[in-house]
Amino acid sequence: MNSTVSNDNNPSATLSFSDGSPSVTMPIYKGTIGPDVIDIRKLYGQSGKFTYDPGFLSTAACNSSITYIDGDIGKLLYRGYPIEQIAVNCDFLETCYLILHGELPNKSQRDDFVHRVTSHTMVHEQMSTFFRGFRRDSHPMAVLVAVVGAMSAFYADSSDVNDPQQRAISAIRLIAKLPTLVAMTYKYSIGQPFVYPSNDLSYSANFMRMMFSNPCEEYKSNDVLVRALDRILILHADHEQNASTSTVRLAGSSGANPFACIAAGVACLWGPAHGGANEAALNMLIDIQNNGGVEKIGEFIADVKNKNSGTKLMGFGHRVYKNYDPRAKLMRETCHEVLNELGLHDSPLFKLAMALEKIALEDEYFVKRQLYPNVDFYSGIVQSALGIPVPLFTAIFAMARTVGWIAQWNEMISDPEQKIGRPRQLFVGATERDVKPIAQR
Ligand code: SDX
Q: What is the pLDDT of residue 5?
């Protein structure tokens, strides 16, 4: 294929075939930043051939204005604003407003948005009965997939995907209620009563109270820890067309209601290669710690390099970031702040994580494969220090990513070009054959 810029400035690419089929010329589109794309939509009709891209390494599934990532230089922009500036100058609800509406809110817009979210934090009282059907030791993501999907049964009045007003109220309901459902999931697992949301607290302070307060004593909020949680939510809010966001878009392309689509995103995020990596990364650090600690890092790294071991350095590597994940740097800073606030700066796990990171960043195996720490490497240590149990880490990730999922879903639904997502395949199975009677098989 070669790309040509015809004299009318409409760049295009022409694909020619060695089998003599007629060549196909396809338009090339330029975004505001980032790689150009080749529009292959007419390729099959004109050539009878599909493109082949398992894992979508070279495929743009949509156009979007929400989040931009440059993996080569480790850059992440939410609606054009660098994550480093958002993390320092905004809180999570301001970030939600930005991701949903495309601009940072002014004071009155912010106050109105906070009021709307705050007045939707309670869930329907009957939803609390769903938890009783689960074993207390169920994985929180099994519970969260169920209760988020069940929201479809309670909020049918905001499920018409073609009504922008209903899409807007669904977005508010999901952002507002996810913390309540995640906290209920946790309380159920430890046999404590559910704690209702408190509307005079900030989003993150409210979540920490629903998680850690109990009816028997006064709960005192710690502003440093609340700010740390808020930053975790900001850093996980959106991330372009990752696996769970693509799942939400694909589910949404069939016209499924927003609650069902977000439940699909929760299910996909659960995987250890994706959102489940923070749980896996902390378990990996605990495992090394329990089996010799820093002295054993060399042995562990050797295991990772041994393909047959199946051992991965969880919290390292990324499909897009071939440089340091900018979120990992911010998460490491938050780690320092929280551990210092809690007098845990000598935390053996944090020391082990930094030792592991140092070795990996200098080791040819990881350097050659451009494997750097990603957002999940440090987030587990921070969450652990906040008192969040390891199995709940991915549920916190889902709580943060809900705004990204719903914004991307909304963008897709409002895109006049959108169609139901229906990829094709390279068929390598049996060619047509006849069924034989069982006696002849
Ligand atoms: C998230 O997409 C997103 O944006 C996701 C996310 C978001 O915010 O939504 O950023 C959140 O999911 C972060 C990623 C969390 N996952 C992990 O930390 C799990 C460990 N990482 C890997 O599973 C892996 O790095 C992936 C899945 C993240 C990316 O894998 P790719 O891009 O498909 O790369 P690959 O598996 O083809 O690996 C390339 C090479 C291979 O070695 P070779 O075959 O070339 O010899 O790198 C090796 C891999 O074996 N490799 C690793 C490794 N990750 C890749 N080797 C050891 N440890 C690792 N972690």
A: 46
